[in-house]
Specification:
By secondary structure, this protein is α+β, with helices and mostly antiparallel strands. The protein folds into 2 domains: 101 residues, ACT domain (Alpha-Beta Plaits), CATH 3.30.70; 66 residues, ACT-like. Chain A, domain 2 (Alpha-Beta Plaits). 33% of the residues lie in helices and 37% in strands. The chain is built from 6 helices and 9 strands, in the order E-H-E-E-H-E-E-H-E-E-H-E-E-H-H. Strands 5, 6, 7, 8 and 9 form a 5-stranded antiparallel beta sheet that branches. A 4-stranded antiparallel beta sheet has the order 2-3-1-4, with helices on one face. A hairpin with a 5-residue loop joins strand 2 and strand 3. The longest helix is centred in the N-terminal third of the chain and has 13 residues. The radius of gyration is 20 Å and the shape is elongated. The protein starts with a strand and ends with a helix. Keywords: Amino-acid biosynthesis, Branched-chain amino acid biosynthesis, Transferase. Pathway: Amino-acid biosynthesis; L-valine biosynthesis; L-valine from pyruvate: step 1/4; Amino-acid biosynthesis; L-isoleucine biosynthesis; L-isoleucine from 2-oxobutanoate: step 1/4. Belongs to the acetolactate synthase small subunit family. InterPro entries: Acetalactate_synth_ssu (IPR004789), Acetolactate_synth/TF_NikR_C (IPR027271), Acetolactate_synth_ssu_C (IPR019455), ACT-like_dom_sf (IPR045865), ACT_dom (IPR002912), AHAS_ACT (IPR039557), AHAS_small-like_ACT (IPR054480). This is Acetolactate synthase small subunit.
Amino acid sequence: MRHILSALVMNQPGVLAHISGMMASRAFNIDSLAVGPTENPDFSRMTFVVNGGDRVLDQVRKQLEKIVTVVQVVDYMNEDYVERDLMLIKVHTASSEVRSQLKELVDIFRARIVDVGNEQLMIEISGQEKKIEAFIDAVRPFGILEMARTGRIALARKANMSAEVAVGDPTHASDLTEQQA
């Protein structure tokens, strides 16, 4: 079973290395990982996709929660959430007919052509993983030259994680930094 976990972490050097090292040392495989800043400059959000049963998920959560720089961990399994994946894909275009066919696919999948070369198109597409996979399957016959994906990101529809970490809360980043000193 696939689980999407989101961890609000302190925005400081070494956090990603520490967390990925912990996951590797305990043989947890990360299917997807996306990291980026949040609306609060003190925090970054890490979104993981991991495979395994409830026992594996429970172990991953407990290990993440033990790390001092991890402020909060949320499992989206029982949440109402929105998820997206972003991909850039370069596809071979041998003729104007092929370009036309690819343009139709781009429109159907609500993607965008972001670069045009002599014999290739670069296409940007975002959406749920199954949409991205379906687009890959649809353009594969034309010849995929190269592709890059971001990994999955997700946000719960309920109150935001960062707002739950209020100033004065012992898990707030500045308070944690003071406690560590």
